[in-house]
Amino acid sequence: MRDPIAARSLVLGCLSPGHDTETTAIMALADAASVPASSVRVTIKRLVDSGDVVQRGRGRHAVLTLTEAGSAHVREDRAAVRIAFAQDAGIIGWDDTWWLYALSIPESRRSERDAARRRLLALGCAPVTPGLYVSAQPLGLHLAHIGTEHVVTARAADLNVRGVSDPRALAELLWPADPILAPYDDLAALIDEVATRIRTHDPHGADADVLRLHLAAGLERAMRHDPLLPLELRTAPWPPTTTRTMWLETWESLTRRHPHSPYLRAQG
After folding, report:
1. Which of 160, 182, 199, 213 lies 20 to 30 Å (CA to CA) from residue 207?
2. How do residues 105-147 score in pLDDT, each as one tens digit?
3. How far apart are CA 127 and CA 160, in angstroms?
C-alpha cells in the first residue's frame, strides 16, 4: 500500500463505545500493519491526556476504554460514513430546505468564535458572509459542541447567493466539486490495489484486517473535506457514490474472510 497506516487511525479503529479493548490486540494488529509500537504508545498517551480514553493497567496488558467525549467523537466519525452510504442508497434525500447558521460570539471571545467557525466548516457548512453559514442539512445536536446560545438558526426554501439561486448551481458555487472529487480518485486507486491483493493472496485473519485498515484510512481521507451534500444537489452520476459502492463491496469481501475480527467488531 502506498500510504502507511497512522497510529491514531489504528488505535481508534480498534476502540468501540461502551467496550473495553486490550492493548495486546492493538499491538498485534500494529505489528501486522508495520506500525511502530512506539507510535502506538504515544498515540494512546495522547488520547488519554486529551480525555478521550481511560487506560487501566500498563504496557501490553493495559485495557483501554473510550470516555464519554471519546465515544462522541468516534460515533460522529462513523455516523458520517453511515450518512454517506444512506445517501448513496437513496435512503436519505434532500427536502428542498437550506439551513442558515449565524454566530453571535463577541469579538472579545475570539478563540471561542474561531473554534465555532472551524466546527461549522467541519460539519459541511459553507460561509456566505462573515459570520453566516449555510448547510443543506439540519445540524441538530451537532450544535451542542458550539453552544446553541451562540447560534442563530433559520431555514429557507429559496436561497440567492451573489445572484445564484438554482440549487445545483448554488451547491457548485458554495461547495465546488473538483476539490472534493480529487481525493476520491486516490481512494479508487487504493480500492483497485486492495482488490488485486485479495485476488492474488486470498488474505485471512490479520492480513485481512490490515487491508481493512488501509481501506478505512483511505475512506477517511477521501471524506475529510466532503460536505456530503444530498445527491439531488450534484450532477448524476456522482463519482464519490460510485467509488464508495466499490469500497463497500471490497470491505465486505474482506469481512467474509475474517468475520470474527476484533477490529471488525469495533467498527460496529
Report:
1. 182
2. 877 888 888 888 888 998 899 999 988 999 999 988 777 767 6
3. 13
Q: What is the pLDDT of residue 114?
A: 87
Contacts of 113 (CB under 8 A, 6+ apart): 103, 105, 106, 107
Pair 223, 263 in one domain: yes
Instruction: Establish if 65 belongs to a structural domain.
Output: no
Q: Which domain covers residue 149, as residue numbers?
A: 98-156
Query: DSSP state, 224?
Result: T
Task: Determine if the peptide bond prior to 237 is cis (ω within 30°).
Answer: yes
The pLDDT of residue 263: 62
C-alpha cell of 143? 450544535
DSSP 151-219: EEEEEES---BTTB-SHHHHHHHHS-HHHHHHHHHHHHHHHHHHHHHHHHH---HHHHHHHHHHHHHHH
Assigned C-alpha cell, 94: 434532500
Place of cell 504515544: 42
In Å, what is the CA distance from 257 to each residue of 203, 237, 247, 249, 253? 7, 31, 16, 13, 7
> Which residues pair with residue 21 across a beta bridge?
64
- Spell out the SS3 assignment of 56-82: ECCHHHCEEEECHHHHHHHHHHHHHHH
